[in-house]
Amino acid sequence: MTLQEALSRIHPLDSALMRRARARLDSLTKPRGSLGRLEAVAAQVVAIHGGPRALERKVIFTLAADHGVTGEGVSAYPKVVTREMVENFCRGGAAINVLARQVGAKVVIVDIGVDGDLPALPGLVSRKVTHGTRNFADGPAMTREQAEQAIAIGIGLVDEESHDGLDLVGTGEMGIGNTTAASALTVVLTGHPAPTVTGRGTGIDDTTWKRKVAVIEQALAVNHPDARDPLDVLAKVGGFEIAGLVGVIVGAATHRITILVDGFISGAAALIAVALNPAVKDFLLASHCSAEPGHRAILSHLGLAPLLDLELRLGEGTGAALAMPLVEAALAVYREMATFKEAGVSEKTP
Amino acid sequence: MTLQEALSRIHPLDSALMRRARARLDSLTKPRGSLGRLEAVAAQVVAIHGGPRALERKVIFTLAADHGVTGEGVSAYPKVVTREMVENFCRGGAAINVLARQVGAKVVIVDIGVDGDLPALPGLVSRKVTHGTRNFADGPAMTREQAEQAIAIGIGLVDEESHDGLDLVGTGEMGIGNTTAASALTVVLTGHPAPTVTGRGTGIDDTTWKRKVAVIEQALAVNHPDARDPLDVLAKVGGFEIAGLVGVIVGAATHRITILVDGFISGAAALIAVALNPAVKDFLLASHCSAEPGHRAILSHLGLAPLLDLELRLGEGTGAALAMPLVEAALAVYREMATFKEAGVSEKTP
User: Fold this and answer.
1) Which of A328, A334, B104, B116 has a CA between 20 and 30 Å from the CA of residue A64?
2) For residue B87, what is the enclosing H or E element?
């Protein structure tokens, strides 16, 4: 499926389904709306899936890639950590492994552009476009064709997993340097200035932060990304894992599956996906609000309210994993609670 | 165990244990602090329990009682709903039943002061002090002896459940009119004025809200609760379920068990418990921040940051149930993640 075919299959949610879902929620034995955001989640997911089916098969797609911009000294960790963490993912020792096990989700670990050759690791899906992006401080991170290839890979990943049934998709990533790319994308697509949306990533000091901001400003000056052309922006200052996640999001929306968007990097992918087709937004839940300042700008731009706000800044899909029980709880309420009528409970005094 | 005996057994957490827990968290394969609040939860719970044991037995105590102040017309639902909802709890059809099942928690449903006689219902624990409080707009809600009796009941409930092992306690309640009591307690113990901490409860209109505020102000003028004497405040403008939850909190702290405090009403019980012994605070996690404005005042007064902020305003223990997976996730991270050394991942660039 090409990107254009996929985009043409995504349509906004049926408002009649949404109204029926809300009416059911209002009939349950609780004051109307007293489960707050959980009720909104239930109505949205019921409308996406066409009913309150249990979320039996949950998959988090954790895409890894490297970033040429690390050559500018913008990160607290050496680039080799991307590869080392992919190995850690495949051995099950990283935070995403632990948190996905807790919620019974599968983690699909994908090399979509890690620098250097990874050994054949158990569970590793090899879809390498190339050995990381070029340094976007000097020119485009990738070609437009590479961006489209990475998106198609993401769409394909969801297609493959959907063969066994797929009820909930989480996004995740790993890539030393990728908060620099996500910040650059956020500047272009939200219009906020670089210092406002650029954070400390894995924990950089003041000097490195100033350099990071300067590198982003230079990248935008050198590459002139066109804000009206999301693929142009993605290719010029994005990353392969980000492009892959655009594909995961678009692919899940074509299958009408709810998407739990993780943190800042995943949020940047969501920005691109929604720019490609605004109807994508109906399929998104924001799992959390990251400690990275650019993430709040993204959520505000997309009009998404995060489910969690725990000052996470790890990525990998950890926020998506942590939010999964909330989505399951919302659906359980919808399916299992008694109505006022069934329980013989008195309704509100008129 | 009397209240005074219980209070004398509660001591602050061991700071050496806390430091060791933080050192372990810093050794794991993630940037330091990148799991944000989850790391603080892990360190606290490890320090409370003396180690990162799994939370195998989780119990939510949902205490129900009636409030004489409903005679003033302060609630959107008739008083009989307290009893009807207890029956709903015992049949498993309420939100707390659904959400507790989702997380594998037991719900202990307790009649500690419901008006009228409840039939013998499966799973109902009968510990009725009396048939609801007196209308505190005219005089004290209960006697000091009744308040002490209700607290002792709460302590006893935790004692009983701890015989089978108890790893996590959640608080919950049901009682038409109890946001009026919780608001009154909050005014006295936080010093905020009644209009600031009084909310819409189950969904009252403007006229009823103004009456509710006036009733609270009248109750405080009539009863003169002494802010330096938490039992006096509790007896004069509290409720039996609130007093019982003070006992649940105090009891769990004596057993060194982590307590997930639910919403506004449970928060008012936590205010009293911490006023009785400030060391209680070390055992508390705030599960969420309620849509009731008084709850934010309580959390701020106690210095607790909520794990969730989902505009919930249902009570029953629903917020505590929803937050349980986050506590379990925090402990799983602590136990199961690989360290930098184990995983051979490079550390931060010096």
Assistant:
1) A328
2) helix B80-91
pLDDT confidence bin for A349, thresholds 50/70/90: confident
Whether A2 shows a pLDDT value over 90: the answer reads no
Q: In this predicted model, what pLDDT tens digit does every residue of B246-276 receive, in sequence order?
A: 999 999 999 999 999 999 999 999 999 999 9
| Model pLDDT, residue B77 | 94
Question: Which pairs with CB-CB distance under 8 Å and at least 24 residues apart come from B345-349?
Answer: B345/A81, B345/A84, B345/A85, B345/A88, B345/B29, B346/A77, B346/A78, B346/A80, B346/A81, B346/A84, B347/A77, B348/A76, B348/A77, B348/A202, B348/A203, B348/B31, B348/B32, B349/A75, B349/A76, B349/A77, B349/A78
Q: Is residue A330 within 8 Å of residue A49, measured between CB atoms?
A: no
All structural domains of chain B, each given as residue ranges with its CATH number in brackets, are 3-52+334-343 (1.10.1610.10), 58-326 (3.40.50.10210)
What parts of chain B have a pLDDT lower than 50?
none
Strands ordered across the beta sheet of B258-261: B124-126, B105-113, B58-65, B168-174, B258-261, B284-286
Both tokens of B234, joined, read 């509790």
pLDDT at A324 (0 to 100): 98
Size of interface A-B (CB pairs under 8 A): 197
Rounded CA gap, A176 and B17, in Å? 33
Q: Which ranges of chain A does DSSP label H, i.e. alpha helix?
A: 3-8, 15-26, 36-49, 80-91, 95-103, 144-162, 178-190, 194-197, 206-223, 230-237, 240-254, 264-276, 293-302, 318-336, 340-343
Q: Please give the full DSSP string across B218-234, using - where no structure is assigned.
A: HHHHHH---TT-HHHHH
User: How sure is the predictor about A335, in pLDDT bands with cuts at 50, 70 and 90?
Assistant: very high
Return the pLDDT at A300. Answer: 98
CA distance A280 to A12: 8
Q: Each residue of A266-288: pLDDT tens digit? A: 999 999 999 999 999 999 999 99
User: Which one from A72, A316, A342, A347 is the annotated catalytic residue?
Assistant: A316
User: How many Å lie between the alpha carbon of B307 and the closest alpha carbon of chain A?
Assistant: 7
Residue of B nearest to A78 (CA): B349
The owner of tokens 């005679």 is B71
Q: What is the DSSP letter of A33?
A: T
Q: Which residues of B are catalytic?
A: 316
Q: Which residues of B touch A42 (CB under 8 A)?
A: none
- Locus of tokens 């993640």: B337
| Terminal CA-CA length for chain B | 55
Contact A78/B at CB under 8 A: yes
Residues in chain B, total: 350
User: Is 80 exceeded by the pLDDT of residue A82?
Assistant: yes
CA A152 to chain centre: 16
**pTM for the predicted model, two decimal places:** 0.98
- The SS3 assignment for B102 reads helix
For residues A158 and B180, what is the distance between their CA atoms, to the nearest angstrom?
51
Name residues 103-132 of chain B within 8 A of A (Cβ): 103
| Chain B residues lying within 8 Å of A91, measured CB to CB | 338, 343
A255: DSSP letter:
T
Q: Kindly identify which residue of chain A lies nearest to residue B78, measuring between CA atoms.
A: A349
How confident is the model over A166-177, as pLDDT tens digits?
Answer: 999 999 999 999
pLDDT score recorded for residue B1? 78
Q: How far apart are CA B331 and CA B315, in angstroms?
A: 26
Cα–Cα distance for residue pair B254/B9, rounded to 1 Å: 6
Which residue of A94, A309, A321 is in closest CB contact with B29? A94
Chain A residues touching B33 at Cβ < 8 A? 203
Compute the distance between CA of residue A289 and CA of residue A267 in angstroms, rounded to an integer.
Answer: 10
In which band, very low, low, confident or very high, does the pLDDT at A328 lie, cut at 50, 70 and 90? Answer: very high
**What is the average per-residue pLDDT within A82-89?**
98
